[in-house]
Amino acid sequence: MPISGSFNAYGARFVDPAFGFALSWNYWYSWALTVAVELSAAGLIMQYWLPNVPSWVWSACVLAIIVGINSISVKGYGETEYWFALIKVITVVVFIIVGIFVAAGVLGGVKYGFSNYTRGEAPFVGGGLGVLSVFLVAGFSFMGTELVGVAAGESENPEKNVPKAIKQVFWRILLFYIGAIFIIGLLVPYDDPNLVADSVQTSPFTLGFKLAGLGPAPDIMNAIILITVLSAGNSALYACTRTLWMMGNSNMAPKIFGRVNSRGIPMYAMLLTAIIGCLAFLTSLFGEKVVYEWLLKASGTSGFLAWVGIAISHYRFRKAFIAQGHSLDELPYRASLYPLGPCIALVLCTVVILGQGVNAYSDGKFNFLVAFGEYLAVILFIILFFGYKLIKKTKLVPLTECDLSRT
User: Fold this and answer.
1) Distance separating the N- and C-terminal Cα atoms of the chain
2) In what residue span(s) does the Amino acid permease/ SLC12A domain sit (predicted)?
3) How many angstroms separate the CA atoms of 85 and 39, rounded?
4) Which residue has the higher pLDDT, 372 or 186?
5) Angle at Cα 19 formed by Cα 357 and Cα 147, nearest 5°?
6) pTM for the full model?
7) Measured between alpha carbons, how far is 310 from 161 in angstroms, rounded to an integer?
8) Number of Cβ within a 10 Å radius of residue 11
9) Most buried of 2, 129, 168, 362, CB within 10 angstroms?
10) How far apart are CA 382 and CA 394, in angstroms?
């Protein structure tokens, strides 16, 4: 069912209109805040080369670039992301190959082996709670894998291309996330003093290249990280725009956001997203970044809330499909491990969301402001859900009444 809005629309169809409403706005502000994060990151990266130029200047330039790319056409966005992704893929592949040689002692002159995995408190530094506290930060980097579903509504041949893309996601996560982290673990110990410095020169990837004796590694990695930031900001703006456009056409947002120009671009939705992202970025310049840190945490948590929505919607969709007399053979793609898959995803994401509260305890004391920041996204989601439910008086959609149409 490759419809625009993807799982946000599915939540309204297969669970409850209020659930879809909360999911949609949750997903929109998640990516709007991500735009702000990437704008801030771009400014910091450029200061590596030009420290005397204010960071907000470079952030404004990046905002202008990603707005320009998204204003051209969907094809323009896709073409740009293709080249961005190609550069990132080549970098990670080269890093993994170089890292294997360094770990084996072929490059750099020192054989590292697996010693870092048993060094000090490794591999579970800080115990179970320490590992749990890392999930939200790590999860933030995984946000975006669900964009393959969001883009399905504008895919040329979704029945063929989307299942193919979904299957590739698994292998790409295994190679480019798990593979790269495994190599970093071999080369860089968790207590390396360089990791605490706020500089691209101490990126784990940069440290890995340095161990191989590659001198210009900092400059190369800085340029690649900048491209990564552009790619992430580009995708964030795309996801935001399409989500708000879907809501404008579903009576979940003002109808003006459902309009498109002659090139099929929802400009009003994109401009509002860009403005909100810019305003969120400005919070990083004032108030000792407290509000900005709240927004950053809310963005990560709201991503997990979106995955909770995907798991629930998928579970309900398959139940409704059978309840309405359909055969699974009609589906062009069937996710493996159903119903265990979405149930595991639901439990794990819920545990991670609730477990973020451990960060509010420091030296045995409870910090309310930290706890508020950790659960801000959850609070907003609950307000959106029950607010819409009370106003519209919505109810859980019976399985036999779920809308399975492709429009």
Assistant:
1) 8
2) 1-396
3) 19
4) 186
5) 80
6) 0.83
7) 20
8) 28
9) 2
10) 15
